[in-house]
Amino acid sequence: MTGPRFTDLAASLPASVPFVGPEAQERARGRPFRARVGANESVFGPSPRAAAAMAAAAADAWMYGDPENHDLRHALAEAEGVAPENVVVGEGIDGLLGYTVRLTVAPGDAVVTSDGAYPTFNYHVAGYGGVLHKVPYRDDREDIDALLAKAAEVDAKLLYLSNPDNPMGTWHDPAAIEAMLARLPQGTLLVLDEAYAQFLPEGAQPRIAVDDPRAIRFRTFSKAYGMAGARVGYGLGAAPLITAFNKVRNHFGMSRISQAGALAALEDGAFLAETIARVAAARERIAGIAGDNGLSALPSATNFVAVDCGADGDFARAVLAGLLAQGVFVRMPFVAPQDRCIRISAGTQADLDLLAAALPRALAEARAEK
Amino acid sequence: MTGPRFTDLAASLPASVPFVGPEAQERARGRPFRARVGANESVFGPSPRAAAAMAAAAADAWMYGDPENHDLRHALAEAEGVAPENVVVGEGIDGLLGYTVRLTVAPGDAVVTSDGAYPTFNYHVAGYGGVLHKVPYRDDREDIDALLAKAAEVDAKLLYLSNPDNPMGTWHDPAAIEAMLARLPQGTLLVLDEAYAQFLPEGAQPRIAVDDPRAIRFRTFSKAYGMAGARVGYGLGAAPLITAFNKVRNHFGMSRISQAGALAALEDGAFLAETIARVAAARERIAGIAGDNGLSALPSATNFVAVDCGADGDFARAVLAGLLAQGVFVRMPFVAPQDRCIRISAGTQADLDLLAAALPRALAEARAEK
Fold it and tell me: What CATH number is attached to the domain comprising A345?
């Protein structure tokens, strides 16, 4: 008896996992974390109106969701000031990145990103046989000039940029993003991951015409809207590209409950503003805790803060391990020199009290190990 | 300014939609349907315990779901009497079919199915450049001998069979499925879609060893469990194949709310049994309504009934249009001669009262058109 014949590409892929979830870590340690501030989730939760809409939709879950995501796409179009034809809804930005790669990347095609940027994008590129070309960060920011130069050099199909950046929290001036678009090589699509866009300072949103065929922008309900578990992301772009998603997407992939929740979340602007304010306060508190321990916090336009542990990656990994051991779930950048930092998501007061209590010991133990 | 460069494959694909949703039809007609019995959803809803679990999980939707689906996979493994390594959970059977095709089908590879079987499977095969070879139904059932012969002839990577069958509701004896497996060509994977398995008569479940590398079976919470809108399907198969899904799946694709709902649904065996009994009663009522109108109902081991309208596809399409016009959402097979039938999902008493009231007029108008 023989098993299935995998494609050459599938056979060559590792059974890789872009991220180990906190639940797996909890199972391994045998007890739950006391603070969950590692995955850039929003501890401030979904809007109560969104939660109520999802709870109400639960009994109606016998019906498939609308495969066209009509109501949500139209509401998003109105909110973003674009046409519904410029909006595609999918199973989180992760799902939409996968579709984007599938539409554009054939085996051997070149793709450019930063070394240490979003691993799930890399997972998709590898998964479709694309060849990743990475350029280093520069001063803890993605290096636009280097990305553009590499894209031109390798004739990239896609160029990935997250703005604000994950995992560092840094961002580029709108003018820099707008200038980048103008300098993009012919035939390279800018994949602009704006998962954290709502946290940008006033006036820091780049102005990109939605029907500009050179870019697609991704947004999500997972961060500022506090709905990571609902899996709702969306893309904004020129109609021909947006329509192309209908060639490959899982048309019935969206949860009906999530559709209802996202619609309600979109209507609760007051809650969104409140979350953004709470996140800003939490960022300040994290920076304060860092400072109290002699560490520095990087500026952030996201719902997390990269804290520079002041030494190398091994030291930061030891600090991270010390926090995890004390029940504080955090993550950190994978690549040097960014891996001198740990990345702490905005938490509740209670979460950050735990962080404040745990960090000194984690640092002391890490220093003792050296 | 140029747009993205699509792959040759993506450029060649139509922006096809496997199914138009009832919501789109409602938008086109300008008013809602009065009975929703066209998509084989379960009008009897999710288990109240599942609905309560989903409602309770709504406020926790700020957390990503466990990307390993650990608890649900373990509960399914226990319920199915297999190991967790034999279970993959995904965004509905649709999502899992897509991953299966992606793992095995390279452009030009042969895939075998029945003409008129599940179009979403065909959508995925076309989407990865596979070449579909279709054999006709025989006596309103998928033709196992013809499928096997075609698979051998074209050296198929995949052979799709739904048992019980959608859209006809028919099924094969377990011995026939088991014998099919033994006769499968080397290197052909049997994709056994068991979305409706819970509705099979006692003793009609084929016995297939879960670690048999020649088959993968798909089940879902969308039908008997009444949770189509939650998007939870699962596959059962040999561990090497199941593990391979980790190479390509959207690891964070599952809604946390849906994970909680599926777990609770699995624990409510009494509700499942009740739904199966209600569906059986509804099938009898649909057959009775058909009989009252001089039509015959096909035997069904699903939550729907194919009703033979007694003439050709054009006539059945006219009947269908008459029902839709009266607010009764139903669908029908796409391909002759099965398209002499319309397909009616199990409904509530009120749904079937509407069907009983609407069918005579739909038939009369269709006859007048001839």
Answer: 3.90.1150.10
A66 has a chain B CB within 8 A of its CB: yes
Q: What is the structure's pLDDT at A19?
A: 81
Together in a domain, B141 and B259 = yes
Confidence grade of residue B105 (pLDDT, cut at 50, 70, 90): very high
Same structural domain, B243 and B297: no
Task: Say if residue A65 is in the same domain as residue A25.
Answer: no
Contacting residues of B for A3, CB less than 8 Å apart: 189, 213-214, 238, 240-241
Q: Does A17 have pLDDT greater than 90?
A: no
Is the distance from CB of A97 to CB of A121 less than 8 angstroms? yes
Is B32 within 8 Å of chain A by CB?
A: no
Using a CB-CB cut-off of 8 Å, the residues of chain A touching B252 are: 19, 92, 94, 120, 231
Judging contacts by C-beta atoms under 8 Å, the chain A residues touching residue B55 are 54-56, 58-59
CA gap A260, A281 in Å, rounded: 30
Looking at the fold, whether B254 and B325 belong to one and the same domain comes out as no
Q: Which residue of chain A comes nearest to B247, CA vs CA?
A: A15
Give me the domain span that covers residue B365.
8-45+270-369
Q: Which of B9, B98, B252 sits opposite A92 (nearest CB)?
A: B252
**Reported ipTM:** 0.97
Residues B342, B331: Cα–Cα separation, whole Å: 6
Count how many pairs of residues, chain A against chain B, have C-beta atoms within 8 Å: 309
- Strand order of the β-sheet with A233-237 is A87-90, A233-237, A215-220, A189-193, A158-162, A110-114, A131-135
